[in-house]
Write a structure and sequence with these properties.
By secondary structure, this protein is an all-alpha fold. It has helices spanning 26-44, 50-57, 61-67, 71-84, 89-95, 102-116, 120-131, 136-160, 168-192, 200-222. The chain contains 10 helices and no strands.
Length: 229
């Protein structure tokens, strides 16, 4: 994904400009900067410079650095707010509620996850951070997704009375077969702009049913050694 030139004008930023001589309270100004920074970096990549970002915010670069001492501090805050922030702590608890069928739990979770997390801005920022070899994407996967994958696999295995492979990496791969599919659905929708006439909720339900139905076969396949091994 090629980043746009940072020399381009950011027309979307006008709505953040401060009119006349009005001075925003510090907390409100900081909020505005963070919101615009998330939008800016999602459009232009993490290589985007702070000078055009400050211009997009309607402030000087000098003032920007009064709120954030350097670009690293700013991007760290954007990560905490925009990448980590949307993930709801209640999701993991809901996924482990065994009073409900696991397919129902997974469907509800991924419908909410797709709407709340897998937005155009989130996806672009996440992918740009990966291309820049930054630590946003690896940290998110390590702190959030790994636990999510383990929860998904353990809950399906418990309902189906399936013995999971001891290899943790294999367990993660089992979880990725569902999580990766839903994530790529969002990429097709928001980044590829591929035609998607089927409602998102229906697509998610379809993939969840397929995952649950084929789970036992996947586990059995994962436990079989490769020919010649």
């Amino acid at each position: 994904m090629k980043a746009k030139s940072t020399g381009l004008k950011i027309t979307k930023a006008k709505k953040f400009r401060v009119g006349g001589r009005t001075r925003l309270p510090r907390a409100e100004r900081r909020e505005m900067i963070l919101n615009q920074a998330a939008e800016f970096f999602s459009e232009y990549g993490l290589t985007g410079q702070t000078r055009p970002l400050a211009a997009a915010c309607g402030i000087s670069q000098r003032l920007l650095y009064r709120f954030f001492p350097n670009k690293a501090a700013l991007t760290a805050e954007v990560y905490a707010r925009t990448i980590l922030g949307p993930f709801k702590g209640t999701w993991l608890a809901d996924l482990t509620d065994r009073e409900r069928p696991v397919a129902e739990r997974l469907t509800d979770f991924y419908r909410d996850y797709a709407e709340t997390v897998l937005t155009r801005r989130w996806l672009r920022l996440f992918l740009y951070s990966s291309l820049a070899e930054g630590d946003m994407a690896p940290n998110y996967i390590a702190s959030i997704i790994t636990r999510l994958l383990e929860t998904i696999v353990e809950e399906v295995a418990a309902e189906q009375d399936v013995c999971l492979p001891e290899d943790v990496a294999l367990r993660h791969e089992l979880g990725w077969t569902l999580h990766g599919t839903v994530s790529h659905m969002a990429i097709r929708k928001h980044l590829y702009h591929a035609s998607q006439s089927v409602p998102t909720d229906d697509i998610i339900a379809f993939h969840v049913r397929s995952f649950v139905a084929g789970f036992k076969a996947m586990v059995e396949g994962a436990g079989n050694p490769r020919p010649g091994s």
